[in-house]
Structure formats: structure tokens, C-alpha cells
Amino acid sequence: MLPPFPGGAYNSLQMPPDPIVTITDGNFESEVTDSGTPFLLDFSAEWCGPCRQMAPLVKEIALAWEGRLGVGLVDIEQSPGTAARFGVMSVPTFVFLGRDGVEAARFVGSVPRDRLAEAAGKVVD
User: Fold this and answer.
1) What pLDDT shows up at residue 6?
2) What is the CATH number of domain 20-124?
3) Is 28 a residue whose pLDDT tops 70?
4) Which residues on neighbouring strands pair with residue 95, listed in sequence order?
5) Which of 70, 32, 77 has its CA nearest to residue 51?
6) Please, where are the H alpha helices in the chain?
7) Which of 6, 20, 31, 83 sits in a 20 to 30 Å window from 75, CA-based?
8) Which residues are catalytic?
9) Residue 25 CB: number of other CB atoms within 10 A?
């Protein structure tokens, strides 16, 4: 279960800052490995319809777990090395990493909100 939306509702003029970090082949170590926090990696591509459908859910998880779970977007065409490192063969692919950087869960394709939220809760606790 996701924690309550932080700070309550936002109106259209007052949007929360985007907590999702863009992960590249060049910044993976500094943003993910060196962070010391659990991480959700969202492997996607601009042309991917299901990736666009999942984007609001990924942002919701990022906001709900902000400060306890890092969330990074990895464009597989811009960062093929990172995609290969995780054996990503299709998008969207969601990889949860524990504090130790070890993969804790993986989902491929569109995933129900509850499954992603449950995985987030497990890596954060």
C-alpha cells in the first residue's frame, strides 16, 4: 500500500517538483550505486505506449516514497549500456534494487499499482 500522498493535494498552479531522476550510462554510479538508498529503475523509451501509460503511476510512487526510495528513468535508446547491464529486453521494465544494489524485484510490461507499491514497500523496509 502506498503511503498517503505527501503534502495533500496540489492545484494546477502548484505542482510538486519531479522526484524522478534521469539515469544514464554516465551517471548510474553516482545517482544509484552511491546513493545508499533502495531504487526503482523504470526502463522505457519515448516511442513506448505502455511506458507512457505507466508514467503517472511511477511518478505517484516516487512522490509517495520520496526520501526513502530513489526513482530513476532509464531511456533504453539513450543508455543502452545500463539497459544491457540489467538484461532489459522489452519496455517498460521496472527493476527494484535494495540498499545493497542487489535486484529485489522485476516487472515487465504494464503492472498494476498494487504490485509496484508492494515491491516498493518491501525494498524500503
Assistant:
1) 45
2) 3.40.30.10
3) yes
4) 41, 106
5) 77
6) 28-31, 49-64, 80-85, 113-124
7) 6
8) 48, 51
9) 15
What's the pLDDT at 15? 59
69: CB partners within 8 A, 6+ apart: 37, 38, 39, 40, 61, 62, 120, 123, 124
Measured over the CA atoms of residue 112, residue 104, residue 109 and residue 53, the dihedral's sign is positive
- On the question of pLDDT at 38 being above 90, the answer is yes
CA distance 3 to 22: 24
What integer is the mean pLDDT of 84-92? 98
Rg (CA), the chain: 14
> Is pLDDT above 60 for 51?
yes
**CA distance readout (Å), 59 to 81, 85, 87, 88, 100:** 24, 24, 24, 21, 23
* Interacting residues of 44 by C-beta distance below 8 A, sequence separation 6+: 51, 54, 55, 73, 74, 75, 76, 91, 92
Main-chain phi, psi angles of 96, to 5 degrees: -100, 130
